[in-house]
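The following block was generated as part of the benchmark described in Methods. Ligand: cytidine-5'-monophosphate.
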Amino acid sequence: PFRGAVTLDGPSGTGKSTVARGVAARLGAAYLDTGAMYRAATVAVLDAGVELDDAEAVARVVAGARITVGTGAGIERVEVDGVDVAVRIRGAEVTRAVSAVSAVPAVRRQLVAQQRDLVGAADTVVVEGRDIGTVVLPDATLKIYLTAAPEVRAQRRAGQLGVTDPAQIDALAADLRRRDEYDSSRADSPLRPAADAVVVDSSELSQQAVVDRIVALAEAAL
Ligand code: C5P
């Protein structure tokens, strides 16, 4: 029986995935990474060789692709037509193209429907993305919007990738800004906090402190 959903939205580089997994583990909940689904859809589009600005062709390719994601809080399982793409979806090629693919309304309709099915099959679930509290699960039990100052986000991304060169860190910051602008300004389901979301700024907090805060809110709400 469905007990509830915790949504975690926000821009890139806030530590959202690590926090979401941590919260899911602490709550004994399932975990759904919707960004992984848009990234998997992007793999299908890149492999089909269609132009990213041809929305109709992009939508057609994604409609024909079977995207599967695991909802366990452990090892990431992501497949396109039965092929494991868990490593490839984190690469630069996919990261560059994903915002364009995820701005196509038909792609969003398809993946949102799949996301709702996955959530419906869970007992308790933590769902991470950009539009989960606003569009996918407007009746979620608890909605969190996680932010952090742009410099902090670039530093964290650099740390994850092992980048120390200041010019490369600037390039990462520029890439984060570009993706956030694209995600926040698209017509369909732009990135923004839901009216009833709790906004958590992680700039000055450790990831552990962020997890603790969200778990406490979730335990009170579930
Ligand atoms: O969270 P992650 O960085 O993996 O998301 C990759 C991209 O997928 C985002 O930049 C955004 O364009 C898109 N996305 C989305 N809606 C979601 C999750 C991700 O549009 N719910």
